[in-house]
Amino acid sequence: MPPAAAAANMTKRNVPPNCTRCGLCREVCLAEKLGQHTITSLLSGGDEYSAWLCSCCQLCQEVCPEGVDVHRVIIEERREGTPTEPFRRSFDNIRRFGYAFAIGEEINDLRAAHGLKPVQLVSPGRVRLLLHRASEDGAGPEPTPQGGGG
Amino acid sequence: MPQYELATKRLLSALDITLQDLDEAACCGAPIVESFSDEWVALAGYNLALAERLDLDMLTLCGSCTNTLRRARRALVDPGLRESVNDRLGPLGLRVSGSVQVKHLMQVLWERRDLLRERVSTPLALSVSLTYPCQVTRPADVASFDDPLRPQSMHNLVALTGATIVETGVEWDCCGSSYAMTDEELALAAGRRKLEASRDADLLVDGCGNCHLLLERMQRSIWPGQERQRLPVLFLPQLLGLALGLAPTELGLNCPPRPRLQT
Question: 20 to 30 A Cα–Cα from B249, which one of A25, A78, B22, B98?
Answer without folding.
Answer: B22
